[in-house]
Amino acid sequence: MKLIFLGAPGAGKGTQAENVQQKLNIPAISTGNILKEAVRNQTPLGLQAKGFMDAGQLVPDELIIGIIKERLSRADCEKGFILDGVPRTVAQAEALDAMGVTIDRVVNIEVPDETIIVRMAGRRACPSCGATYHLDFKPPAVEGICDKCGTALIQRSDDHPDTVKERLKVYHIQTQPLEDYYGKKGILTTVVGQQELSDTTRLTFKALGISE
Ligand code: AMP
């Protein structure tokens, strides 16, 4: 299966993509994670992307299309894959089409903006190993300290409430048109994000015809 997970930042698409990845044994590819790792390692890609990410803006399409072309050409994508957080613009979706990639289904996870703003305010990340936490839903064992490597946790600049509001604005303007793009192709399913994570997972599996 070749799948796309669409949804606003913080809607929970990454979590659901991981659930489906485990169930179907196909890779979940997150351009957000690839870019964050590049920023942490200060690679040329990371240096180019950082300013856009910190400001809550999208990274230019050419960079994203380059990442995706390289990633999809690897052997582990032959059986299928899940694209998490990409495409995020119509130009990126068109580039996938031009690469001859046929997507089977697009799952659109829908969560109100107000819920997202509250949720993202609680996110914390480890600047050293990249592990992520949430003050309410996934707290570290020791407050403020990474379980995996013991580094002090931070709130990433792109999770600050002002940046989140900017990211949501960008989402509505640049990414939401993809609902129409894939809706017209007849492959879009919308899942309404639930308060309980397990309920959203159940609805996501149902949308994909996967047994729990
Ligand atoms: P995410 O964790 O998926 O929300 O991604 C974090 C940041 O990386 C976003 O706010 C964007 O700046 C950038 N990014 C990730 N994926 C894309 C994409 N497909 N197109 C443009 N920018 C992206």
Strand and helix layout:
Blueprint (H helix, E strand, L loop, with lengths): L1 E6 L5 H12 L3 E3 H10 L3 H11 L6 H12 L8 E4 L5 H9 L6 E6 L2 H9 L1 E3 L6 E3 L26 H15 L1 H8 L3 E5 L4 H12 L4
Parallel strand pairs: 1-3, 1-4, 2-3, 4-7
Antiparallel strand pairs: 5-6
The structure holds adenosine monophosphate (AMP).
Low-confidence stretches: none
Say which molecules are bound, naming each kind only once.
adenosine monophosphate
The number of helical elements comes to: 9
How would you characterize the largest beta sheet?
A: 5 strands, parallel
The structural class is alpha/beta
Estimated share of beta-strand residues: 5-15%
Helix residue percentage: 40-55%
What does this structure look like?
This protein has 212 residues and is α/β, with parallel strands linked by helices. The protein has helices spanning 13-24, 31-40, 44-54, 61-72, 90-98, 113-121, 161-175, 177-184, 197-208, and strands at residues 2-7, 28-30, 81-84, 105-110, 123-125, 132-134, 188-192. Strands 2-3-1-4-7 form a 5-stranded parallel sheet, sandwiched between helices. The mean pLDDT is 94. The structure holds adenosine monophosphate. Residues 9, 30-32, 35, 52-53, 57-59, 64, 85-86, 88, 92, 158, 167 line the site of adenosine monophosphate (AMP).
Brief account:
It contains 9 helices and 7 strands, in the order βαβαααβαβαββααβα.
